[in-house]
Amino acid sequence: MADEKEKKVATTSKKETASKTTKTATKKTTTAKKTVEKKAETKVAEKKVEEVKETVKVDNKTENQEELVAKATVKYARISSRKIAIVANLIRGKNVDEALAILKFTPKAGSEVLEKLLKSAIANAENNNQMAHDKLYIAEIYSNQGPTLKRIRPAAKGSAVRIRKRTSNTTIVLKERV
Fold first, then answer.
1. Domain limits at 60?
2. How many domains does the chain have?
3. Residue 19: CA atoms inside 13 Å, Cβ hemisphere, count?
4. Among residues of the chain, what percentage have pLDDT more than 90?
5. First-to-last CA distance in the chain?
6. Is 131 left (phi over 0), alpha (psi -120 to 50) or beta?
7. Shared-domain flag, residues 88 and 52
8. Radius of gyration of the chain (CA)
9. Long-range contacts of 94-97 (CB under 8 A, 24+ apart)
């Protein structure tokens, strides 16, 4: 009887190990299938990312090739940005020769600063970027407020009044007409 029990135990243990090995084998095959599927998905995703990167590169190249810009900036000019903005609105979008003529004959305080700045921007365009003078126009012009110098002036009854000496940072961007 002991021999029969040992045989039964041996056969059941063989069956259990066989079932365990088949289970692990099926698990391995399913995990292998899953990893193959994941690899295929990642390859497809990588291809899509590469395609998108190539289109972005092509778009950037066409944008960079088409638009050359020349900039000039004056910082800490001792004039209010509001006074500069009045004259800047007159020349925005104009050809550079027309803008120079407008600035020359405009009786405003900001016209001197802007005329000098525009000449500098034209020189930058011609010398640094090899842009044609005839095709240049003012694409952007803006004047932002710079730091304010604060001074004090004596006033009545021993009091003091604050004087604000405003400055401005002005930028001109030139582009070529196509």
1. 1-66
2. 2
3. 6
4. 61
5. 104
6. beta
7. no
8. 38
9. 94/137, 94/138, 95/136, 95/137, 95/177, 96/122, 96/133, 96/136, 96/137, 96/138, 96/174
| 15-69 confidence digits (pLDDT tens) | 565 566 566 666 666 676 777 777 777 777 777 777 766 766 555 545 555 679 9
User: Are 164 and 149 spatial neighbours (Cβ–Cβ below 8 Å)?
Assistant: yes
Whole-number Å distance between alpha carbons of 96 and 103: 10
Of 14, 39, 66, at which residue does a domain stop?
66
Mark whether 123 and 158 lie in a shared domain: yes
Final residue in a domain of this structure, among 46, 66, 86: 66
User: What is the C-alpha to C-alpha distance for residues 63 and 60, in angstroms, rounded to an integer?
Assistant: 5
Q: Tell me the C-alpha to C-alpha distance, in Å, between residue 131 and each of 38, 93, 128, 138.
A: 52, 17, 8, 13
115, 88 Cβ separation under 8 angstroms: no
Residues 106 and 143 in one domain: yes
Do 50 and 133 lie in one domain? The reply is no
CATH number (domain holding residue 149): 3.90.470.10
171: amino acid identity, one letter: T
Question: Could you report the per-residue pLDDT of 24-36, keeping only the tens digit for each?
Answer: 666 666 676 777 7
| Residues 115 and 59 placed together within one structural domain of the fold | no
